[in-house]
């Protein structure tokens, strides 16, 4: 019999991440708030799951053959996951990333052996957008596949088949709500679909940063963005293939300042060093928890995604000069 913590190969280290009760958020919401510790994946983010499912799907379809190349446009974490999975399976990786992303992500990708192509940040309608650039590179590269994380539904399948069942089992089948932000939409849609298959009464909420258009879409039926956010990897202006049919029951819009406050508290009070998307997710979980309490749910349980490690943002979120330049609050311990 295989011991619970024994894995037959390194790719089996992806998934089966711990779930932790978050004390501060639970007290703030008046219910139980749980964080899925996705930073415990080998690539230190939730995107490892999508990377593995996308690569395995390409292999099954016969599109990715031995010695082939994986090309992707990403804000960083999916590229890191693809590079690690690619290394384990003998593939090369070419990653196209906006030059506005954190220095740590760029350095990590280079350290992992990926070929990194940086492009200016641009709207999706611009042909120079990192997604379009990566598609062209894949078309021009012999033996290459385009991962296409935004519209490749192997992405959300990863969460239907792994994240959702894990949450259901870890919470003994008693979960009232789930929320997270959307980048590709794979996590919110996949976890939502997977959990709804267990219990239709679970409330699935989108937590959207400012600068994204999905809050207005789910609230009012119109893709309309307002404000801006410095959060990396989340925020979407269109309905991707992964978001099509996502079972979104309600939605919250969270500011960077509110997200950063939870980043600060989770580090100082609970010893978790996280990125801003995790802080925004936790703020959304608190909002959802309060809503469920107000609706009369008895001792509701809400889960969210702790998407990646804060060590990936030492030059930004945890840097006084960067925060001041963005007119964002500086953590107390960085002021001296």
Structure, explained:
One of its GO terms (molecular function) is transferase activity, transferring alkyl or aryl (other than methyl) groups. This is Cysteine synthase. The protein is of the alpha/beta class. It contains eleven helices and ten strands. The protein has helices at about 25-30, 45-60, 75-90, 105-110, 130-140, 155-170, 185-200, 215-220, 255-270, 275-295, 320-325, and strands at about 20, 30-35, 70-75, 90-100, 115-120, 145, 175-180, 205-210, 250-255, 300-305. The strands form two sheets. A six-stranded mixed β-sheet has the order 1-2-10-7-8-9, sandwiched between helices. The longest helix has 19 residues, at about 275-295.
Shape estimate:
globular
The CATH topology of the largest domain is: Rossmann fold
Q: How widely separated are the two ends?
A: 54 Å
Which percent bin holds the helix content? 25-40%
The mean pLDDT is 96
Main β-sheet, spatial strand arrangement: 1-2-10-7-8-9
- Uncertain parts: none
Taken in chain order, the helices and strands follow as: EHEHEHEHEHEHEHEHEHHEH
Approximately what portion of the residues adopt beta-strand conformation?
A: 15-25%
| Major sheet characteristics | 6 strands, mixed
Task: Give the total of domains.
Answer: 2
CATH-scheme architecture of the largest domain: 3-Layer(aba) Sandwich
Taking Cα atoms only, what radius of gyration do you get, to the nearest Å? 19 Å
Class based on secondary structure composition and strand pairing? alpha/beta
Quick one: how many beta strands?
Answer: 10
What top-tier CATH class of the largest domain fits best?
Answer: Alpha Beta
InterPro entries: Cys_Synth/Cystath_Beta-Synth, P-phosphate_BS, TrpB-like_PALP, TrpB-like_PALP_sf
Domain Tryptophan synthase beta chain-like PALP: 12-293
Keywords: Amino-acid biosynthesis, Pyridoxal phosphate, Transferase, Transit peptide
Pathway: Amino-acid biosynthesis
